[in-house]
Design goal:
By secondary structure, the protein is α/β, with parallel strands linked by helices. An eight-stranded mixed sheet has the order 3-2-1-4-5-6-7-8, with helices on both faces. β2, α3 and β3 form a beta-alpha-beta unit. α5 packs parallel to α6. The protein is globular, with a radius of gyration of 18 Å. About 4% of the residues have low confidence.
Length: 337
């Protein structure tokens, strides 16, 4: 059984694929609210930080290199509006230390956006032996959310930044860490993005309002770090001169458009009473068929963005992943059934 009935797009909405984060947050007052945005110093994360702060929220940005992040966030939010702290998602001790510092402050947490992540990297493993995409993109954020769960305020929202690449792979429970199957970078990435969606589905079922999102393909963020210029041209993400192709209705967005769905899920009154759904283009995504696309082309794969694959919204898989994640991390949630 899958949660198909919940993936029903909103019919009457003023927003679409071309809307910006600033537009979807217009009129929302976040004064007195506290947000944590991982990866909130660069790309769509930085734009998320900027817009949440502009609407009045105090934004905490945990990063591996605070000094570097301070430079990248210069001018965002004014004095005291953005707080930078240290966090390495692949290091459990670092995650726990950040969470302890936040909890010690006594502040409620109103918005958590898990935007940080890695994509398309060669096979590497963390200190526990877990494949790096799964360790960083899923386990790190699972642990962080669990450790911060005592601070999540009533009505808090958690936004898990996934990707259309979830359609490349389900969570392969029999070999999550690629110990017996051939490693392909985009399969590792796709598996971790499916995990992001399943996590939001189960977190919402357990009483904390949560969403997963596909931001679109944004060349000005981390795409160029893993794809060659030739691959970017093959995917039609840049033109022959190497300039980004911006076509939001084909999923190719600028940073302002790319951050919009995360911000929409974090603040929009359109989603009051809704949760556990996968969203794109500032709407709830429809369900799509399994893609079957080849992920072995080293960054040249075109991933369809029309909807969410059934394997990513399977409640049984979500429960199985949750229980596995608790075992692997050794942490449990304060959740509200």
């Amino acid at each position: 059984m899958t949660a198909l009935r919940d993936q029903e797009p909103i019919q009457d909405t003023p927003f679409d694929a071309a809307s910006t984060a600033e537009q979807v947050a217009a009129g929302v007052d976040l004064t007195g609210k506290v947000a944590v945005v991982t990866g909130g110093h660069s790309g769509i994360g930085r734009e998320t930080t900027r817009v949440l702060r502009a609407r009045g929220a105090h934004v905490v940005v945990p990063v591996r290199d605070p000094a570097k992040a301070a430079g990248m966030l210069d001018g965002v939010g004014g004095v005291g509006g953005v707080e930078i702290d240290r966090l390495d998602l692949v290091d459990p001790e670092s995650v726990d230390a950040f969470a302890d510092r936040f909890l010690a402050s006594g502040r409620p947490l109103d918005i958590l956006v898990t935007s940080a992540g890695i994509m398309g990297v060669p096979l590497t493993r963390d200190a526990r032996g877990h494949e790096s995409h799964f360790a960083t993109n899923h386990l790190g954020h699972f642990r962080l959310t669990a450790r911060l769960s005592p601070a999540l305020a009533r009505g808090a929202r958690v936004v898990s930044v996934s990707a259309a690449a979830h359609r490349l792979s389900p969570v392969v429970f029999d070999d999550i860490d690629f110990e017996r199957r051939e490693y392909q970078p985009m399969l590792g990435y796709g598996q971790s993005k499916t995990a992001n969606i399943l996590f939001a589905l189960e977190l919402n079922r357990r009483g904390i309002q949560a969403f997963s999102v596909h931001p679109g393909s944004i060349v000005d963020t981390n795409l160029s770090a893993w794809a060659t210029p030739e691959a970017l041209r093959a995917m039609k993400l840049v033109d022959d001169d190497g300039k980004p192709v911006i076509d939001p209705y084909a999923g190719k967005k600028n940073v302002q458009q790319g951050a919009s769905t995360s911000v929409w899920c974090a603040v929009s009154p359109q989603l009051d009473g809704v949760g556990g759904v996968y969203c794109l283009d500032n709407n709830i995504a429809p369900v799509a068929g399994e893609s079957g696309h080849d992920a072995s082309s080293h960054g040249t794969t075109e991933v369809p963005t029309a909807g969410v694959s059934p394997h990513a919204i399977d409640p049984a898989a979500a429960v199985r992943l949750w229980e596995l994640s608790e075992r692997l991390t050794g942490v449990a949630f304060l959740t509200r059934h």
